[in-house]
Amino acid sequence: MPVTDFATLALAPALLSTLQELNYQQMTPIQQQSLPAILAGKDVIAQAQTGSGKTAAFALGMLSALQVKRFRIQGLVLCPTRELAEQVAKELRTLGRSIHNIKVLTLCGGVPSKHQILSLEHGAHFIVGTPGRVLDHLQQQRLDLSELRMLVLDEADRMLDMGFLDEVARIAAAMPAKRQTLLFSATYPDKIEQLAASLMQQPVRVSVSSSQQESSITQQFYALDNSTREQAVMLVLQQLQPASCVVFCNTKRVTQQLADALQQQGFSAKALHGDLEQKDRDQTLLQFANKSARILVATDVAARGLDISELDLVINAELAHDTDTHTHRIGRTGRAGAKGLAVTLADNKDDYKLSLLQDTLSDAIQLQPLPPLSLLEQAPAKAEMVTLQIQGGKKQKLRPGDIVGALTRDQQIAFEDVGKIQLHDLWAYVAVKRSAAKKALQILNHDKMKGLNFRAWQL
């Protein structure tokens, strides 16, 4: 049996069975290096890029150490963003689905505390959250970490970049000193070393080089010359025609300006940055994930924790401020062995950044001319799907099956024309093929579900 097989680990049969059902057979390099130490109860510092399988590594460690009959908070995962926290909680629940009565609770900012307070009163085994909100609950004495056995810091470098060092230290002070601490980070600057020294006991350090990941990513560099960045992004998009693309900018202002310019020219684009209201941010991420928007124009911080499994293209509209950020950006394409493409736009002011980047690359950077201007005469491709919002959700006992059933009844709409469905307490979202959107709206606004009438509209 190969040493990369999960069955070689000291995991409970129920966990191994779940891994098999999920088709998790071979460990990724970071899982192979970190899991034996994690399962042995050691503190671990793991350096690995997004998409390397790190979430499953620490999730399996948490689930293996869980005493499910002991209804106390036993594990805490701190994440830089709400999106990443929700992604981690989802993975924990999925991997732990064979364990009865397991409770995973997310505590994140950007949403009212009311539901979180009620959930905390009922207890939990694992908490996944952002440092600010977790600390808030701690200070209000709603959260008891006195029996915590494992602390995980996910994407620790970004938490420090976002100024969460003080919050992390104060949260750690409320835990038992005798615990297991796992730290995952894409980069390893000095401040991570200092954080590890303050929180960990003789940590095992493992690292997976990004070269293996980069080998599946082709990088292209274009000279801006006399073109504006906005025009250059449009030319690249028209030439490559990606079904899904993230365009990175360095500031919120440039991000919004570029998204607006793309929309005005008919591109299916959305902006993602820190100035958005939480509702708008959630709807933007939803539309990108369900293929109702082809292009996401984002800042680095806002894009952290995006759960994107298939991304055709990354465009650096502006060069990242440092090489680690550049590596992290392009690592969002070419995941799980798939081929990826990253395009970077540069002008003569970027010479210094390009020279720093060149030191990390095996191939010489060749600036090529932009695609021909004539491409802008063609109409941009529309998104494959559209998102419909329904004024009703879990509180009205709506289920995904009710929505699918209403749309496909009497073959009014083909089953394959219905995409992802997301249910919230008071809202539901369904993606449908663009060609079926008009008919779907008609059905949702005139037919009953659960014996009730609901209002629906297109986002």
UniProtKB/TrEMBL annotation:
Residues 4-32 form the DEAD-box RNA helicase Q domain. Signal peptide: none annotated. Residues 35-206 form the Helicase ATP-binding domain. SMART domains: DEXDc (SM00487), HELICc (SM00490). A motif (Q motif) lies at residues 4-32. Its EC number is 3.6.4.13. Pfam families: DbpA (PF03880), DEAD (PF00270), Helicase_C (PF00271). Keywords: ATP-binding, Helicase, Hydrolase, Nucleotide-binding. Residues 216-376 form the Helicase C-terminal domain. GO terms for molecular function: hydrolase activity; RNA helicase activity. Belongs to the DEAD box helicase family. PANTHER family: ATP-DEPENDENT RNA HELICASE DBPA, ATP-DEPENDENT RNA HELICASE RHLE-RELATED. This is ATP-dependent RNA helicase DbpA.
